[in-house]
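Quick question: what would this complex look like in 3D?
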Amino acid sequence: MSLGPDNVKSIAHLARLEIEEKNIEEYAKSLSSILDLVEQMNAVDTTNVKPMAHPMDVSQRLRVDEVLEENQRETFQKIAPKTEDGLYLVPQVIE
Amino acid sequence: MEWETVIGLEIHAQLRTKSKIFSSASTAFGAEPNTQACAVDLGLPGVLPVVNAEAIRMATKFGLATGSEICKSSVFARKNYFYPDLPKGYQISQMELPIVGLGSINIDLEDGTKKTIGITRAHLEEDAGKSLHKDYHGMTGIDLNRAGTPLLEIVSEPDMSSAKEAVAYMKKIHSLVQYLEICDGNMAEGSFRCDANVSVRPKGQKEFGTRAELKNINSFRFVERAINLEVERQIDVIEEGGEVVQETRLYDAEKHETRSMRSKEEANDYRYFPDPDLLPVVLDDTYLDEVRKTLPELPAEKAARFVSELGLSDYDAGILTASRELADFFEAVIKESVEAKLAANWMIGDVSARLNKEDLSIADCPVSATNLAGMLKRIEDNTISGKIAKDVFNGMWIGEGDADTVIEKKGLKQITDDSAIESIIDEVITNSPNQLEQYRSGKDKLFGYFVGQVMKASQGKANPAQVNKILKDKLK
Amino acid sequence: MYHTKTLSELSAMLGAGEVTSVQLTEHFLQRIKDHDAQLNSFISVTADQALKAAADADEKRNAGNAGPLTGIPIAHKDIFCTKGVKTSCGSKMLDNFESPYDATVVEKMQQAGVIMLGKTNMDEFAMGSSNETSFFGAVKNPWNTNAVPGGSSGGSASSVAARLAPAATGTDTGGSIRQPASLCGITGLKPTYGRVSRYGMIAFASSLDQAGPMAQSAEDCALLLNAMSGFDPKDSTSLEKEVPDYTADLNKPLNGLKIGLPKEFFGEGLNKGTDEVIQKAITEYKAMGAEIIDISLPNTHLSVPVYYVVAPAECSSNLSRFDGVRFGHRCEEPKDLEDLYKRSRGEGFGEEVKRRILVGTYALSAGYYDAYYIKAQQLRRMISDDFTKAFEKVDVIMGPTSPETAFNIGEKSDDPISMYLSDIYTIAVNLAGLPGMSVPAGFDSKMPVGLQIIANHFDESRLLNVAHQYQQQTDWHKAIPEQFK
């Protein structure tokens, strides 16, 4: 499966990754070879096989509805890149 | 060219759980920014979600109340996109296997008939945080308190064909989620939000036209206006030879217009896949039965009962059952053996009017059900007239005590003694010889004058029915 | 010399009062100071914290409150969140991240009394099989410092092999405990999926990741596994199964043990020298009374392609939270939101991570989801079913952990596919959620060779027993590289 530079650019955009122009070709190549590897899957017939999302067949445990967390804003915002008035700051978001 | 409108609504109801859907932080409204965003809500490296049992229960209640299929093994899926109010870069939602499947709800049309509106599905998901409008020197501030609050997204079939129907549906759902006590319905606080998908097509055409999604319409009034605006806009576009673009439009209440927000074409590829940190939520019949038992009498059932058992009109029953609190209040009143129609009239009339005027909900009504019942009984036993009751009601409202106290204090007891009324009438007649003569010579309209004079002389306390009877006699 | 003792031996010594925790901790901190420059196996050394904890441990012991792990120094892979301590995950993205909370595994081990010496180096975000993708530089193999230690738990493997720590924690998503254990000549165990809590363990591929012990012997691993295991209400995928005492069955005799040898593990691609070592190990087991049964895991060859769809897909989503907003690396002066995301992530992530995010994003994207992701999950079930069938006939499955011994640094870094094939024997185990171990089985051209042992779900006791018995008959696990003795 061959991916070209345009494919790489659009996937990189979806993933919000900046890839320098000079590296795009390289990524296209390595992605294509990974996809070639993955192509091997197509040789096998999987009709009627149920996809396996988890190794074990168990169901979700449900948690009691109670408030157990306290305000830890100071602790959490100590490691934040940019805050003010208790808010996380990002470049202006225009709706 | 005749057009018809096709509308589907997507309602997001914030569930009234104490803690978030995937973490144990509080969901309480109005806290200081980021004081209710725990490690899981912030999407810190290494954190994991655990499902809130109450959110599941609430979604199940909704599904049972709308006759929907409850999925016995529903799956949480990740909806991937980047936005600052979405900490993990994905929203945990449900995609292929939502907890609630196909169901329906009936709405009342203006002509009194009912229409069934289909509900395609309802699924659970987590709410995002909020970006504040305040400008922080060119930057936007993000508050993640709301991130992780459970939402039930209710998707209707595109069954509505007018803005009015859409509003009726929205109101029904609004009422239902409050009845079920799963959502407080507070649109001002954002606990009940609505998006509308609107399209038009030539009358009779089977295919749907291209639809636009209207967002940011958070009151019944705005929903109606925005939809009507959009329908007009789309018809104009097509009639001028253009094509409707599939897009999201924001309703601007001040400018009374909708404007394009972003093209859905360029919209995100959400790359949904089952969340590997969560397992399928498996519900069995025992659980469903247990939840079913906790369902309250639903609005439709209650209204039907009011009509059949209490003899109320469909209209009155509809109004009284619109909110559970109102219905409960009403039932508390008639429990005290007050006649249903009388109670209904007062609830729908004076009580509601006063509540509206002072912007209060029935929960905040200063007159208790018992006190209202007490007053209504005094109407029934003729102690006061319906007219005087308004004064008594006002007295109770402003805190002067219960009905009997107010009646006593203000001396509002009706005069029901025939001889007393007779003497008042006699006096009035004596003092109005001209009017008497005119009346007797054919001016029937003057009857009202005499009634008025008698009421004036008795400070409104003479029993109107008796006054009428005796006056008629005496004026002959 | 303390560093030539196993963890179990050190535990006995502490218990007998022959050494204090402070002495042990000082000793290993000195070893790290003296030798780690050659290996680069540590990202952070928490000396002050360790010495204080050691003093507390000694006090506890004096008060009669000590357990088998009280006062034992160990290292944590830098993928586990450690409160107040840098947790980098081997990445520039988290170079400045001081975790505000402890991972459950860290908490549990702390409660059991271990002393944290520091955080070990690893492939960036656990993506790699050679520990060459770390932002903090490659880790060296103590048996040959021109060679890789394996990955992604390369730092943990290297530090234990060089005895800079008696044991360490690791994580395994496609072989990241077992393969480095094999390449470095130590004992590593990946538990059954759901046995150990993932809360606080920075996620790579959520349905595959598991934490486990890396130490000098099966006995050591058993002691550590006792402390690490258990249900955690904060992890929905953590299972509510009781934790047995994993040391209890170590000495059970192996007579009648049925060992399955999948023919797919001995085919093309397996290095001859490695094969010879493994065959000798199998002979050893025969001598102990085990029965060798030939089996087949016919879909195993698909495990690499399946893994390279499932793991990147899950990680592409797991890594979206690294966006420069709430923690971690943020680019300078972002001009708008898009710029903030793209540059912060572009600068913060290394090439291999970016590659996998791109593959994963592609596999999940519209039009490709069914062909890639769903297809991979279907094959995953088939691979898992192969094991289920096999375990009807055998008790454990064996084979080489890695197709070859440690390759040289730089040898495969330009060829991702070649790198991915290093995990060819280990990946299927993660896909099926089974427990697996690697135990030192000998040397090929002076480089360690590991024997992989795989058991059925929740059969860690058996796994450890089978490994322990081998270690009673052989000395491979006791070997220490000359320059680190």
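Answer marked as accepted. Chain C touches chain A through 72 residues (CB under 8 Å).
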